[in-house]
Amino acid sequence: MTEESERERGQAAARRERLFLAVVDDSPERSVALRYAALAAARGGGRVALLRVVEPPGQTEWAGVAEMMREERRAEAEQLLQGLAAEVNRITGSVPILYVREGEAREELLKLLAEEPAISVLVLASSTSSEGPGPLITALTGRYNRLLRTPLVIVPGSLSDQELETVT
């Protein structure tokens, strides 16, 4: 096999690799979405990406205080993602791609999807509360669905680990 054909095969494989993006928020169902994405990636030869969006600091009179708050929030987000990355690595055998963004979750998610064409599947878990499926799912299946260019998988937030094993 020539070096050129081997390189072409590698490039084709990279194009075929599916990248499953899970949003890391503070909801209880986030673990369901994360586990689904990891299991689907492991079984389908894909990879996982994790997105954590942190809120910007509120209005403060001193720029130094705002910057310190920003750095604290980012450090907390990175620490959380590192812990979740270890879990994903255990399931998939590969280290996930980690994204930390500052802003409003819906806006930052849509920006990331527009910037990263390698993301091929967005995985969200629906809320188990009676208040509805959750703000991101509501937005992405409603008003903002025209902006979504990535397939959206909505996993019931009440699925057990065993049920997730069965459906992936």
What is the overall pLDDT average? 90
Separate helix tally: 6
Shape annotation = globular
CATH topology annotation: Rossmann fold
The top level CATH class name: Alpha Beta
What CATH architecture do you see?
3-Layer(aba) Sandwich
Helix-strand makeup class: alpha/beta
Strand-residue proportion: 15-25%
| Strand arrangement, major sheet | 3-2-1-4-5
Largest sheet composition: 5 strands, parallel
**Radius of gyration from the alpha-carbon trace, in angstroms:** 18 Å
Q: Give the total of beta strands.
A: 5
Order of helices and strands: HEHEHEHEHEH
End-to-end C-alpha gap = 35 Å
Percent helix range: 40-55%
Estimate nothing, just give the exact number of structural domains.
1
CATH superfamily: HUPs
